[in-house]
């Protein structure tokens, strides 16, 4: 075999208290799409950051086309031919497409930027991706998907040999992912090596040639994608037996539960102009109601209306048959409604407070400022949930910002469980968290349901919705377009409902 | 002889306090204060001199406590405002209003001191509530909202005093800023009482948690059911109260109400005290005691410069330099960088010491980490 494009041997990197990478080997061939898989905290990001010179290594060596390289900064790595596109699009929305591609490496003449040269290079870079965009248009006027492509084009602008994509698809919808994959295959044919990191198993199987699995900073193995069954991959990632994993997957929620026919919450004609068209909803105790739809179909908006974050301008909400009005989350909480938001960072965690404080904050808020929960009591509550939800943290006094995504999500769940809610709205509770934590959260949702809670479950992953819900409400273009119950629920049926929604809608 | 003993005692107590704080954020603030005092111990003659006259203590250190009281009081309110991610620029002007209201009632309207003081405090609470209303109620940016009162407040104070400087001799009012209790200035008692009260208010209730939540992540706090507006409103109101007290002390110090000069620029000292005390201007975690120590530090610095006859025209320059230094040393990033910078020196020293036979240096140690 020819010299591999990238050969990493025995790479180690430690942080105080943890060994983030422990003698990891990775080999990437030219013209290969190599998936890097592992749970949160397995060491994927650290590996990328060491490769691109963000962190110095402790031991090990990296060869690019047979030559030892030691990049000391991302810039140096780029110059050597390793380009990275990060999870969040790292571009400047207010600048033009061409400016974004050329930024930071503008060709200059006597200190003046040569715009002509920038445009030429930008056009060439976009050409490699078969994209024809208006170079002068402001980047933010394009969709996130296109922005992502521009980010890749920017990475390719310098003569890249190896392209690293860190969760490039997390903010793209299905067709956009398809588009991206088409481009990636084209790049692969051109001889580029690509390292691809994602949480979506399906995408790994669709696009990658080889999979390297990491767990707890060690390499579990490197496999040809074709020869690795999906269930095996998952069991490698979480380090559990195949049988155990299968049991997790088959756990389709059974519908036989004690359920009152009286809805816990009922919304009639609830809506807000320019936000969501008026819709009817009913959630019963002991039931998981799934809210399905594409990104931007109004799922989060519905949740926000129900939780009082935004005020509805039409319709009524009934709780236990009584009409109620919330104009703040505080009011909704009084009726024992809880919500974990889609955007964990923005509206969920309070990063510089401790795990304990984050867990008790909603409970304390419901008691008001004057009746303070004694510290001993707070510690008891925190410890109880750290244990029962298996939150991985060195101590309850750790800052939440230091926890991994999955554990932060568990802290948020704990925050609300402590208030003993009657209706739990979960907006994308499993987004961006690893397989193990995902399974735990799914299990938790079912046990809450069995305890008689009403759960409104929002997710982009149809598979998850199907597995979890007893009823599914489908949204499209900010309207409710269908509702499925029990036996009718399947991925096909939901997709069908989304796809045919246009015909059902009156032509007005 | 007596002084020598008392100095030694002072340093023993100070070191013990510093040691007990070694793992806490305010270690750096208290440490900076210690360095400054140490400098004075050796290079500023008479700074550590303390004498007992008529049962009252006098000396530079007592002056620091007395003169620093105003900024200490202000910093109590300011630290809470800053913790919510805001800032209160109006405290200096509110001090002037407080002075104006109390002395006008006292002198022009012939009211008893109790009424004058109470009325001044009520007016200042209202002024603080006004700031709170603008920030929490109308969503105006704190720096703009409080700038309104910072500019207009002095005008209001001038209206109240009718442009006059009002002098007074009322014993109660004079006592506030000049009296002694337990041999120490009464202002010190006032600061301690307010500090304890504030500590109680934020740490014995859930207000502290709410303030930190709101400052750290406003949106998430709202989602958690915290009445974020109420929290913001309360901190500005409380800052108004603190400014009112500081204003009473300020006018009592000089036995007159001068609307133009009372509390002038003190809002800046209060903000500095909070920052030197370890609280970030971005909000979130706050350090109440740190802010008070920060205020003490600034006053000590001012007094040091006075005592060393640095002209008041140039004294802001050394003051600024020292404060920059303190802030830098609170930054973890800066300390790491400094350690990295000086690591080569450490390696060199280690190499040199490595050449010297081990026994020469010290007796064998078992606790030293293996290389």
What is the averaged pLDDT score of chain B?
86
Multimerization state: heterodimer
Globally, the shape of chain B reads globular
What's the CATH topology label of the largest domain in chain A?
Rossmann fold
The biggest beta sheet of chain B reads: 2 strands, antiparallel
Q: What is the CATH H-level superfamily of the largest domain in chain A?
A: P-loop containing nucleotide triphosphate hydrolases
Number of domains of chain A: 3
Q: Could you give the order of strands across the largest sheet of chain B?
A: 1-2
State the strand order across the main sheet of chain A.
6-9-10-3-11-12
Largest pleated sheet of chain A: 6 strands, mixed
Please bin the fraction of helical residues of chain B: over 70%
Please provide the count of β strands of chain A: 22
CATH class of the largest domain in chain A equals: Alpha Beta
What keywords describe this structure?
heterodimer, A: 508 residues, alpha/beta, Rossmann fold, 3 domains, six-stranded mixed sheet, 22 strands, disordered C terminus, B: 371 residues, mainly alpha, two-stranded antiparallel sheet, 16 helices, 6 strands, 72% helix, globular
Q: Can you lay out the helices and strands and say which pair or pack?
A:
The complex is a heterodimer of chains A (508) and B (371).
Chain A (H helix, E strand, L loop, with lengths): L5 E10 L2 E11 L4 E5 L6 H8 L7 E6 L2 E3 L4 H7 L1 E4 L11 H6 L5 E2 L2 E2 L1 H14 L15 H14 L4 E5 L7 H16 L3 E5 L3 H7 L2 E6 L2 E7 L5 H9 L3 H9 L14 E8 L3 E8 L3 E6 L6 H8 L7 E6 L2 E3 L4 H6 L2 E4 L3 H5 L6 H13 L7 H14 L16 H13 L5 E5 L7 H16 L3 E5 L3 H7 L2 E6 L2 E7 L5 H14 L4
Parallel strand pairs in A: 3-10, 3-11, 6-9, 9-10, 15-20, 15-21, 18-19, 19-20
Antiparallel strand pairs in A: 1-2, 1-4, 4-5, 7-8, 11-12, 13-14, 13-16, 16-17, 21-22
Helix pairs in contact in A: 4-5, 8-9, 13-14, 13-15
Chain B lengths: L1 H19 L6 H17 L6 E4 L2 E4 H24 L7 H18 L4 H25 L4 H20 L4 E2 L3 H8 L1 E2 L2 E2 H19 L2 H10 L1 H6 L4 H27 L1 E2 L8 H11 L11 H20 L8 H15 L1 H24 L2 H4 L10
Antiparallel strand pairs in B: 1-2, 3-6, 4-5
Helix pairs in contact in B: 2-13, 3-8, 3-11, 3-12, 3-13, 4-5, 4-6, 4-11, 5-6, 5-11, 7-11, 9-11, 12-13
């Amino acid at each position: 075999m020819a010299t591999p494009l990238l050969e990493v041997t025995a790479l180690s990197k430690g942080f105080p208290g943890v060994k983030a990478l422990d003698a990891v080997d990775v080999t990437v061939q030219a013209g290969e799409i190599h998936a890097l898989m592992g749970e949160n905290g397995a060491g994927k990001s650290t590996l990328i950051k060491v490769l691109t010179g963000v962190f110095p290594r402790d031991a090990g060596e990296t060869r690019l086309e047979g030559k030892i390289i030691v990049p000391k900064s991302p810039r140096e790595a780029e110059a050597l031919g390793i380009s990275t596109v990060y999870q969040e699009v790292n571009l400047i929305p207010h600048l033009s497409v061409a400016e974004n591609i050329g930024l930071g490496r503008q060709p200059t003449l006597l200190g003046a930027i040569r715009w002509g040269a920038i445009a030429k290079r930008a056009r060439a870079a976009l050409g490699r991706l078969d994209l024809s965009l208006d170079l002068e248009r402001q980047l933010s006027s394009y969709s996130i998907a296109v922005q992502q492509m521009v980010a890749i084009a920017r990475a390719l602008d310098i003569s890249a040999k190896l392209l690293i994509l860190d969760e490039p698809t997390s903010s793209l919808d299905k067709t956009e992912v398809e588009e991206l994959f088409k481009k990636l295959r084209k790049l692969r044919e051109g001889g580029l090596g690509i390292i691809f990191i994602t949480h979506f198993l399906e995408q790994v199987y669709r696009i990658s040639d080889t999979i390297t699995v990491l767990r707890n900073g060690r390499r579990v193995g490197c496999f040809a994608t074709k020869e690795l069954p999906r269930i095996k991959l998952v069991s490698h990632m979480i380090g559990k037996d195949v049988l155990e994993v299968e049991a997790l997957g088959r756990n389709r929620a059974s519908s036989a539960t004690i359920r009152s026919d009286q809805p816990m919450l009922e919304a009639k004609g609830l809506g807000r102009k320019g936000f969501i068209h008026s819709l009817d909803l009913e959630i019963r105790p002991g039931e998981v109601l799934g809210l399905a739809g594409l990104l931007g179909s109004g799922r989060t908006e519905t949740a926000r209306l129900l939780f009082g974050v935004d005020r509805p301008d039409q319709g009524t909400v009934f709780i236990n048959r009584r009409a109620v009005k919330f104009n703040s989350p505080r009011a909704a909480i009084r009726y024992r409604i809880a919500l974990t938001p889609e955007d964990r960072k923005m509206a969920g965690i309070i990063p510089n407070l401790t795990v304990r404080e984050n867990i008790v904050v909603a409970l304390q808020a419901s008691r008001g400022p004057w009746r303070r929960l004694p510290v001993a009591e707070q510690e008891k509550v925190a410890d109880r949930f750290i244990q029962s939800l298996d939150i991985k943290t060195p101590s309850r006094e750790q800052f939440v910002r230091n926890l991994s995504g999955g554990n932060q999500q568990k802290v948020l769940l704990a925050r609300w469980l402590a208030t003993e809610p009657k209706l739990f709205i979960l907006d994308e509770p499993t987004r961006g968290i690893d397989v193990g934590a995902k399974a735990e959260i799914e299990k938790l949702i079912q046990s809450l349901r069995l305890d008689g809670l009403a759960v409104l479950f929002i997710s982009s992953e149809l598979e998850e919705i199907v597995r979890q819900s007893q009823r599914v409400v489908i949204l499209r273009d900010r309207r409710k377009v269908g509702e499925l119950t029990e036996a009718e629920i399947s991925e096909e049926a939901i997709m069908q409902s989304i796809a045919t929604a246009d015909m059902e809608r009156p032509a007005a | 002889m007596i002084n020598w003993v008392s100095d030694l005692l002072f340093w023993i107590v100070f070191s013990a306090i510093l040691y007990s704080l070694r793992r806490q954020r305010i270690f750096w603030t208290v440490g900076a204060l210690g360095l400054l005092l140490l400098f004075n111990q050796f290079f500023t003659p008479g700074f550590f001199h303390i004498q007992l006259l008529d049962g009252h203590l006098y000396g530079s250190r007592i002056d620091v406590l007395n003169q620093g009281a105003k900024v200490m009081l202000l910093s109590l309110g300011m630290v809470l405002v800053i913790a919510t991610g805001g800032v209160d620029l109006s405290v200096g002007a509110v001090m002037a209003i407080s002075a104006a209201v109390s002395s006008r009632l006292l002198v022009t309207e012939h009211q008893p001191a109790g009424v004058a003081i109470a009325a001044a405090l009520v007016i200042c609470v209202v002024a603080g509530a006004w700031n709170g209303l603008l920030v929490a109620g109308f969503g105006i940016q704190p720096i703009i909202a409080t700038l309104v009162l910072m500019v207009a407040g002095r005008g209001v104070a001038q209206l109240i005093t009718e442009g006059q400087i009002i002098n007074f001799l009322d014993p109660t009012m004079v006592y506030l800023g000049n009296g002694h209790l337990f041999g120490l200035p009464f202002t010190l008692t006032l600061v301690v009482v307010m500090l304890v009260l504030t500590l109680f208010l934020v740490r014995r209730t859930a207000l502290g948690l709410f303030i930190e939540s709101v400052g750290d992540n406003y949106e998430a706090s709202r989602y958690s059911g915290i009445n974020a507006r109420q929290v913001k409103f309360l901190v500005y109101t409380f800052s108004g109260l603190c400014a009112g007290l500081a204003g009473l002390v300020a006018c009592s110090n000089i036995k007159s109400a001068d609307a133009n000069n009372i509390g002038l620029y003190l809002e800046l000292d209060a903000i500095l005290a909070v920052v030197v005390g370890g609280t970030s201007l971005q909000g979130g975690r706050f350090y109440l005691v740190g802010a008070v120590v920060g205020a003490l530090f600034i006053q000590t610095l001012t007094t040091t410069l006075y005592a060393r006859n640095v002209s008041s025209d140039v004294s802001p320059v050394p003051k600024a330099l020292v404060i920059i230094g303190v802030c830098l040393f609170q930054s973890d990033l800066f300390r790491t960088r400094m350690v990295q910078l000086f690591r080569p020196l450490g390696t060199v020293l280690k190499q040199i010491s490595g050449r010297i036979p081990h026994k020469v240096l010290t007796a064998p140690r078992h606790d030293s980490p293996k290389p």
